[in-house]
Amino acid sequence: MESYDIVVIGSGPGGYVCALRAAQLGFKTALIEKYDTLGGTCLNVGCIPSKALLDSSEHYFNAAHNFKEHGIGLEKLKVDMPQMIKRKNAVVEQTTKGIDYLMDKNKVTVYHGLGSFEDKNTVKIKKADGEEKITGKNIVIATGSKPNYFPGMEPDKKRIITSTEALGLTKVPKSMIVIGGGVIGLELGSVYARLGCKVEVVEFMDRIIATMDSSMSKEIMRALKKEGMKFNFKHKVQKAENTGKGVKVTALDPKDKEVTFEAEYCLVSVGRKPYTEGLGLENIGIEPNKKGQIETDEQLRTSVPHIFAIGDVVAGAMLAHKAEEEGAFVAEVIAGQKPHINYRLIPNVVYTWPEVAGVGYTEEELKEKGTEYKTGSFPMKALGRARASGDTYGLVKILADKETDEVLGIHITGARAADLIAEAVVAMEYRASAEDIARMSHAHPTYAEAVKEAALAATDDRALHI
Ligand code: FAD
Ligand code: NAD
Fold first, then answer.
1. Quick one: average pLDDT of 139-161?
2. 335-387, pLDDT tens digit by residue?
3. Radius of gyration from C-alpha coordinates of the chain
4. How far apart are CA 299 and CA 339, in angstroms?
5. 40 CA to centre of ligand 1 in angstroms
6. CATH of domain 160-270
7. Which atom of ligand 2 is nearest to the CA of 47?
């Protein structure tokens, strides 16, 4: 039986980064993945394929609606969905093969098969051609998550689909009901709306992306409505039925009256749940909590001290970059280092167009905490760069402590918000004041100038270009 210093179960962004960092630190490392390709949800059926389709559909939407204004004429524009999916698959393949290369380069031993605990140090790997057992001085559970659904809306994967099937449709549907106006609902809803599908979101809360700053919800909703998306709020979906030709979705409206929606497809995007099936947790005395998460301490150790858990399978944001941080963190803890993750400064991004990004406290959270704060906002449309590209939607909003001027939150809707938020993270990691950002030179013309201007506005209402 082969023995390792660290055995990682699951090769998503949490698991493969953990394996890489462990190998860098000189540990003999094994990575177990039940699927044939590495990279987990993120690379295979999450972040990467969704962004490939978002980019392709955005090109189409721009060609159909915005090129003319730029002086570009196109005739007989059409969507070649099989080609769009083929390209997306190629992007996924290149990306997952990149992980094979990295494992090879760093001498991580990869096992393909279902990993399950025999005991606290032994993992059995059930492979297509038999079984193998390996041992680990330390074991890291990085088994991720699966799409969630509630009773009555079980996905049949034909008409009632999850994000996984929505990433592989080879024909643009005529219509789609999206249950849940969270990140997946908006990103994948937007892909299909741009391609000409009638998309209607049915959301339980009173706004979309309800965990982000509410002014961002309002701003992005205006842009998505322009793409043709429709929204129903305070509607609680009760059931979704495959009618043969399509789907019927039943919901309770704000007055608790039953209403129905019909469409060709229904995308169930009501969150994701931790995945621990087949892992044999019962053999090591670990029981997931009510949410299905594996509980850990601040070092991400489970109740068995040499067994760690990271990423979507533990508490916290279900984000690839959070899982990555935890992967590196655990390898460093095992090496005896003292790493740190600032969970408050993990940015959230929605890759619609314009993009939405936020880090730190939202205005709603500051109100709830009773913190005295000031705000500074700056609209994208006042930027020369935004006018040049035609991306005039959105704004930057900075929340700063009223007394100390320390930046407490930065929220952006606009072109390249996903990249702009990195400046906000750096500033907040160094506990910058709004004045600090306001006094830094920002290249002209860029979208980043809106961050400087919002900081000027927050400092003492001294934005220059408005
Ligand atoms: P996962 O990526 O889920 O990987 C877990 C791996 O473990 C899987 O490969 C699984 O097969 C394997 N596994 C499970 N059990 C076993 C076992 N017993 N033995 C062997 N292997 C096992 N996040 C972002 O930050 N940005 C985005 O843009 C983004 N877009 C997304 C889009 C979609 C459509 C979806 C669904 C998710 C998206 N996410 C995004 C979320 C992101 O994918 C997850 O947060 C991230 O993948 C979690 O990483 P992980 O390593 O914890 O788990
Ligand atoms: P989500 O938690 O973002 O949104 C789910 C939405 O469904 C919520 O707004 C909720 O109010 C609503 N909902 C729940 N039950 C409902 C019901 N019965 N009727 C109507 N609405 C209902 O979940 P998601 O969009 O499925 O995404 C899952 C996870 O994947 C998220 O945690 C997210 O972090 C991650 N993800 C991230 C990205 C990104 O970073 N860009 C992209 C996709 C997914």
1. 98
2. 999 999 999 999 999 999 999 999 999 999 999 999 999 999 999 999 999 99
3. 23
4. 9
5. 5
6. 3.50.50.60
7. 42
Ligand lying nearest the CA atom of residue 252: 2
* Active-site choice (59, 65, 340, 444): 444
318 - beta bridge partners?
none
pLDDT in tens, 247-278: 999 999 999 999 999 999 999 999 999 999 99
Rounded to the nearest 10 degrees, what angle do helices 320-334 and 13-24 cross at?
A: 30
- Please state the CATH superfamily assignment of the domain spanning residues 2-146+273-343 in this structure: FAD/NAD(P)-binding domain (3.50.50.60)
Model's pTM, two decimal places? 0.98
SS3 content of the chain, % helix, strand, coil (to 5): 35, 25, 40
In the structure, how many helices (H) and strands (E) does the chain have?
13, 22
Tell me which residues have their CB closer than 6 angstroms to ligand 1: 9-15, 32-35, 40-42, 46-47, 50, 114-116, 142-145, 163, 184, 275, 278-279, 311-312, 318-321, 323, 351
Active site residue 340: no
- Residues 385-405 have pLDDT tens digits of 999 999 999 999 999 999 999
Which tokens is 382 given? 């006042």
Note whether 2-146+273-343 and 354-458 share their fold.
Answer: no
Closest listed ligand to the CA of 191: 1
